[in-house]
Structures are given as C-alpha cells and as structure tokens.
Write a structure and sequence with these properties.
By secondary structure, the chain is of the alpha+beta class. It folds into three domains: 34 residues, no CATH class; 80 residues, Nuclear Transport Factor 2, Chain: A; 80 residues, Nuclear Transport Factor 2, Chain: A, CATH 3.10.450.40. It has five helices and eight strands; from the N terminus they run αααββββααββββ.
C-alpha cells in the first residue's frame, strides 16, 4: 500500500510538473529516518558487544576508538563511540546495539567539541580491546562503557581506561585499567556506597 502511495505521489508530481524531485526526496528522507533507528529497544539486551561495535566503527571511520558507551537513543539501544581518525579528526559514530550496523557518523566540527579536540588522549600503549579483556578477567560480565582518561586525582592523572561492567549478578562494577601496564584496579560497584556516599558496612 505504501509503495503504491509513493508511486502515485511521484506520478502526480510529474503531471503538475516541476515538483517530482521534491516528492522523491521526501520519500527518501522518510526511509532514511527509519533505517537509522536502533533495531533493539531500550531495556532489551544488546546483541552487539563492545568489540563488535568497535570493529564496525573503525570500518566506517579508520582510526582509534577511545570511548564506547551503550546508550539509549530515541527509545533504542545504541553504542556511541569516539574515534580519533587516521585523518587526525575526531569522529562520533553510532552503532546499532542489535545488528551492529553503523547508524550515523559525524566529525567533532559538527558539534563544536573543542575540549576533546585539544585535550582528550588519542591513543594508549594498552589498546581498548586489551583493556576490555583485562577488565573482564577481573570481573566477568558485560562491558557497557569504556573510556580512555587521563584526569583522575587518585591516579595522579595517569593514563587509564575506565571500564564499566554489568556483572552476572546485575550489579555495575567500575574498574580502572592502567593504559601502560594493563593492571586492573577496582573502583567500586553499585553496592559499595550508600546514597550518602558512605561505605555500606558503616550502618
């Protein structure tokens, strides 16, 4: 039924003359919007893991991934990735958490993220995949976020990967992986602190 509607709209536009291109463009834009929605709904389980998302991102934008985060976008589950491209430009890449397809990409020039351009670390001796492997050896589960960071008072601004793991127990575990040695230290889990920031054992 919809195909007939589009054909009819284009035919009508041709008859009146001069507006066929507009009708076709409208149909294409609508199709594009549908294709860029995630195939998995928020709250469902991501079928694409962080390694698959990273692989998809670097196929679309050759370079180094320094951040990957599982996120809710318009009711769908996606991976948001930061890629420092081989073109020396930062790129934001969105990957479907259901089927691993790249849904969109743009450069940092489009969002004006000057701080990232100037200060964010662009690579590390221990790459993202090795940091993820090290974190999962320390804490089994599913990685939901990984970020290369050099701004942590506790580490004296040493370069490290911050890795969030959702354990099989359903709890969130935060780990730091030294970006030079690969050593893993546990930051905390959901139950380590109460709402007031105190250790749970204090009560």
């Amino acid at each position: 039924m919809k195909r007939k509607f589009v054909i009819a709209a284009v035919t009508a536009a041709v008859l009146v003359g001069g507006t066929a291109a507009t009708a076709v463009a409208f149909a294409d834009d609508d199709s594009h919007d549908r294709e860029t929605r995630s195939s998995v709904k928020s709250g469902d389980t991501a079928r694409t893991d962080v390694a698959q998302a990273v692989a998809a991102a670097v196929r679309a934008v050759p370079g180094t991934v320094t951040e990957a985060e599982l996120d809710d976008e318009d009711g769908g589950l996606v991976w948001e990735l930061d890629v420092y491209g081989s073109d020396k430009v930062w790129h934001d890449v969105t990957v479907d958490a259901g089927n691993g397809k790249v849904l969109g990409k743009h450069t940092s020039d489009d969002d004006g993220d000057d701080d990232r351009d100037r200060y964010a670390p662009r690579s590390a001796p221990v790459p993202l995949d090795a940091a993820v492997d090290a974190a999962l050896k320390a804490q089994s589960g599913t990685v939901t976020s990984v970020d290369l960071d050099d701004n942590d008072d506790r580490s004296g601004k040493a370069l490290h990967w911050e890795v969030d793991v959702r354990g099989k127990d359903g709890k969130k575990h935060e780990l730091n992986v030294d970006a030079k040695s690969g050593k893993v230290t546990v930051d905390r889990s959901d139950d380590d602190h109460g709402d007031d920031g105190r250790d749970g054992d204090d009560d």
